[in-house]
Amino acid sequence: MPISFELSKNSVLAREHYNKIALEQMRPVSREADTREHDLPQQWVDFWWNEGRKGSPGDPTAEGDGFVTVCIQAEELCFGDAGLYLRMPTAALGGSAVGAAGTPEQREKFMEPFKSSPHPVWGAMAITEPGAGSDSAAIESTADFDDATQEWVLNGTKIFCTAGDGASQVDGGFVVVWATIDKSAGRGGIKSFVVPANTPGMELVGLEKKMGIRASDTATLRFDDCRVPRENLLGSAEVRGKGKKPSGDKGFKGAMATFDASRPIVAAMAVGVGRASLDFLKEELARQGVTIRYDAAPHELTAIERDVMEMEAELQGARLLTWRSAQMMGQGKPNNLEASMAKAKAGLAVTQITQRAVQILGPLGQSQKLLVEKWMRDAKINDIFEGTQQINQLIVARRILDYSSAMLR
Q: Could you say which of 208, 227, 248 is where a domain stops?
């Protein structure tokens, strides 16, 4: 597939628009939001709900361009602050799941508040459990159907739910919960359910204290006989396995397709954080009189020059992989391989770039007077959520070698 190394006019306008927001609205409150981890960054939330979400100039419906613009937004806003980006009142991963696996009626019903609500609302995804992380088949949360009331009854505990606080507590929001309707069917029994905010039986148990992205809320949610209507199931209630293989089942498969959209976004987030660190490092080196000689022979370069050039190459490689997977997504082409490639590359690159920036800057990089140490803390999560580095490398290997998950684990 040919790759264009030039952004369209629409994408350039988006980059300029979101870069301005990053520098003017996010950077000034970045340190305070990091320090006050569980306090709602009200100024930022209000700004985004009233102004930021209106979008950038240009035509967001341009063919293949819309999702590239989404990733450009993620890069630029995480260049401002990754934690604040994750705290934006949006449908987020929950909305992606509804879009991937929901019916037109479900999309209209659950996404409408994000267009018309007078107050900020959030969406979230609840997958991870104390005993189930990357292995979705290990999910223990259950959903049982009550024939008498035509409701699904959810029980279980979910951890590390990004935006779980707002999505579970603010009217108009919702949490998409993964649960099994048949444990014996393994992955085939996993379904996803939309649980509106403040549904009885859904309880916010606590919020994580984190190393990075502290401005975001990362919640633990407990479901105790939590009832949702039959129509809140995303996809089919039929179970794959046990000799059954229903056609058109968008339950587990549709929910998993969420990651084909979310992984490029996470990769773009990583690129934004990495770029923030690298740009600051280059500016500080220039201030100290250190010049990066791009025209010098390799054997003439200093160790710092080689480091900076390598960091730039890693960042650009991650960005191009991200744009490629985003362009394919926008054109409706399968991008499972490309999304995992972008996510794996960007997660590793941002971790290395931010750590190296701190190392080169020495004591200055460790100081909380600057944001460099914060960017290093914010970086690592991009190598973990939406599938760890190891999981995404497994996916890449399976797709390239045409192996099943049972053949390559």
A: 248
Residue 10 scores a pLDDT above 70? yes
84 and 122 inside one domain: no
Q: Which two tokens stand for residue 348?
A: 């590793």
Judged by DSSP in three states, 84 sits in helix
Please indicate, yes or no, whether residues 62 and 107 belong to a single structural domain of this protein.
no
> 101 lies in which domain range?
95-248
Whether residue 85 is found in the same domain as residue 104: no
End-of-domain residue from the set 227, 248, 269:
248
Write down the pTM of the prediction.
0.91
pLDDT tens for 207-263 read 999 999 999 999 999 999 999 999 999 988 888 654 444 434 555 666 677 788 899
Q: Which of 75, 208, 305, 386 is catalytic?
A: 386
Would you tell me how many other CB atoms lie within 10 Å of the CB of residue 333? Answer: 12
Q: Are residues 126 and 86 in the same domain?
A: no
* 3-class DSSP assignment, residue 98: helix
User: Residue 371 is encoded by which pair of tokens?
Assistant: 């944001």
CA distance 347 to 382: 5
- Round to whole Å and give the CA distance between 234 and 195: 11
- Asked whether residue 100 falls in the same domain as residue 163, the answer is yes
- Concerning whether 386 is annotated as a catalytic residue, the answer is yes
Give 40-53 pLDDT, tens digit per residue. Answer: 999 999 999 999 88
